[in-house]
Amino acid sequence: MEPNVSASDDWQVHKFGGTSLADPDRIRHVASLLDTRELPLTVVVSAMSGITDRLLDLADLAPTEDAAFADRLQALRDDQRAVVTELLTGETATATLRALDEDVEDLADVLRAARLMGTAPSTTRDLVAGYGELWSARLLDGVLRSRGISAAVCDAREVLVVCHEELGPVVDWPATRDRFADWRANHADADVIVATGFIATTPDG
């Protein structure tokens, strides 16, 4: 049985897929919907529509010696930066852009490693694909905070622990409960938790 990992039974949980977050207008619409809900809330988000496919295309291209992957990575970065600058302003925009650029640098390192190995194993593909959820979470978090809502991004890699067993991934609930308690203690003022879907961590990181 899944234990209760929340400190309260009063939380509502909402899930928004990629189509609901497909562009800046839809992200604003999601924020406006959440603004009418009774707090507190947990919101689980997917990557913006099309972003996961673009990330996986990069993972597929990297080992092939196809020089196009560098151009596609740059195009993805530029597109994401455009969304950030349309949705966010001030220090929130600056911090989000800085984090995006750091992510793209990390992605480039991962893709270069795949090129050197001549393959992109499933673990690499999962790592690359997971950035889309993180970008969506930061965007929605920023829009919510611009509306005066106390929000915080919960990167599931910091909280959700899974073990790979014979039948597939299984959540390590005791470890997840402990990590979430620590995370929540550091974000006690957040009325809205914007959590990343899809991604998690393993006991060994």
Describe the structure.
By secondary structure, this protein is α/β, with parallel strands linked by helices. The protein has a single domain (12-196), classed as 3-Layer(aba) Sandwich (Carbamate kinase), CATH 3.40.1160.10. 53% of the residues lie in helices and 13% in strands. The chain has a 4-stranded parallel beta sheet with strand order 1-2-6-3, with helices on one face. Strands 4-5 form a two-stranded antiparallel sheet. Helix 2 (51-61) runs antiparallel to helix 3 (68-87) and helix 3 packs antiparallel against helix 4 (90-117). It is globular and about 50 Å long.
Short overview:
The chain has helices at 24-35, 51-61, 68-87, 90-117, 122-129, 131-146, 173-186, and strands spanning 12-16, 41-45, 151-154, 162-165, 168-171, 192-196. Strand 4 (162-165) and strand 5 form a beta hairpin. The chain is built from seven helices and six strands, in the order βαβαααααβββαβ.
Task: Offer a few descriptive terms.
6 strands; Carbamate kinase; four-stranded parallel sheet
Query: Any idea how many domains?
Result: 1
So what's the overall shape?
globular
Runs in which pLDDT lies below 50 for 5 or more consecutive residues are 1-7
Structural class label: alpha/beta
Radius of gyration: 17 Å
| Portion in strands | 5-15%
- The helix content is 40-55%
The CATH level-2 architecture is identified as 3-Layer(aba) Sandwich
Widest sheet: strand order? 1-2-6-3
Class in CATH? Alpha Beta
CATH fold annotation: Carbamate kinase
- Please identify which CATH superfamily we are dealing with: Acetylglutamate kinase-like
Q: What does the main sheet amount to? A: 4 strands, parallel
Give the number of DSSP strands: 6
**Mean pLDDT, as a whole number?**
92
Please give the alpha-carbon distance between the first and last residues. Answer: 24 Å
Order of helices and strands: EHEHHHHHEEEHE
- Figure out the total of helices: 7
